[in-house]
Amino acid sequence: MAIDICLAGATGWVGCSLVKAICGEQDLNLVGAVSRTHAGKRLDDVIMETSSDVSISGSVKEAFIQKCDVLVDYTKPDVVKSNVLEAIQNGIHVVIGTSGLSDEDFVQINEQAIKHQVGVLAAEQYSYNALPS
Ligand SMILES: NC(=O)c1ccc[n+]([C@@H]2O[C@H](COP(=O)([O-])OP(=O)(O)OC[C@H]3O[C@@H](n4cnc5c(N)ncnc54)[C@H](OP(=O)(O)O)[C@@H]3O)[C@@H](O)[C@H]2O)c1
């Protein structure tokens, strides 16, 4: 069964690559995309070399009208926390790629995740530097 994903920051530098990656996987289903600038447009009208008829929403709250299993967030430090809490309160699991959350933010997110029984994966830095041998 495919996992339904909503991607916040879908039109950004990371988001564009993620749209292509998600659309290329059979077990992932992109059902929502968030960007204020492009709200109301189709994703494939905004991102080249993509075939997705998903309509872009201006906020995660609007995007969650369409049911999804996981929110993936690559937005900005000033909005990521509210996006994550909105998802948790709707019973949606979260992958956080956005940097800038504080220790206090993570304490609050953890409390809410436990309360609502959802999983949150926070990986603000996926890059990998090999140590010299
Ligand atoms: N985990 C990692 O390894 C990794 C790697 C690279 C980057 N990052 C982090 O990922 C985040 C995104 O980086 P980026 O370079 O892709 O940024 P970017 O190119 O500026 O893209 C940001 C995206 O978020 C959207 N956005 C911004 N504010 C929003 C708001 N208030 N409501 C809804 N959407 C909003 C933007 O669309 P609109 O402006 O149209 O709303 C855009 O789609 C940053 O925090 C960066 O540090 C993490």
Describe the protein:
Helix 5 links the parallel strand 5 (93-96) and strand 6. This protein has a single domain (3-122), classed as NAD(P)-binding Rossmann-like Domain (Rossmann fold, 3-Layer(aba) Sandwich), CATH 3.40.50.720. It has helices at residues 13-23, 43-46, 60-63, 77-89, 103-116; strands at residues 3-8, 28-34, 56-57, 70-73, 93-96, 120-122. Helix content is 35%, strand content 20%. A six-stranded parallel sheet has the order 3-2-1-4-5-6, with helices on both faces. The mean pLDDT is 95. The chain starts with a strand and ends in an 11-residue tail after the last strand. Helix 4 (77-89) runs parallel beside helix 5 (103-116). The site of NADP nicotinamide-adenine-dinucleotide phosphate has 26 residues, from helix 1.
Annotate the secondary structure layout.
Blueprint: E1 3-8, H1 13-23, E2 28-34, H2 43-46, E3 56-57, H3 60-63, E4 70-73, H4 77-89, E5 93-96, H5 103-116, E6 120-122
Parallel strand pairs: 1-2, 1-4, 2-3, 4-5, 5-6
Helix pairs in contact: 4-5
Bound molecules: NADP nicotinamide-adenine-dinucleotide phosphate.
Report a brief summary of the structure.
By secondary structure, the chain is α/β, with parallel strands linked by helices.
